Amino acid sequence: MRQARIFLRCIYCLVAATFIASAAFAQAPSTTLLALSKDDHTVAIVDPTTLQVLARIPSGPDPHEIIASDNGKLAFISNYGGLDSALNTISVVDLVGRKALPPIELGALRSTHGLDFVGGKLYFTAETNKVIGRYDPATQRVDWVLGTGQDRTHMVIASKSLDRIFTSNVNSATISIIEQVSQPNGFGPPPGGPPQGGPKSGPPSGAAPPQGPPPGGPRLTWEVTNVPAGHGAEGFDLSPDGKEIWAANARDATVTIIDVASKKATQTLLIAVKGANRLKFTPDGKRVLISGLGARAGDSSLVVIDASTHKEVKALPLGGGAAGILIAPDGSRAYVAVSSADKIAVIDLRTLEVVGQIDAGKQPDGLAWAIKK
Question: Of 43, 56, 133, 248, which has the fewest beta carbons less than 10 angstroms from its beta carbon?
Answer without folding.
Answer: 56
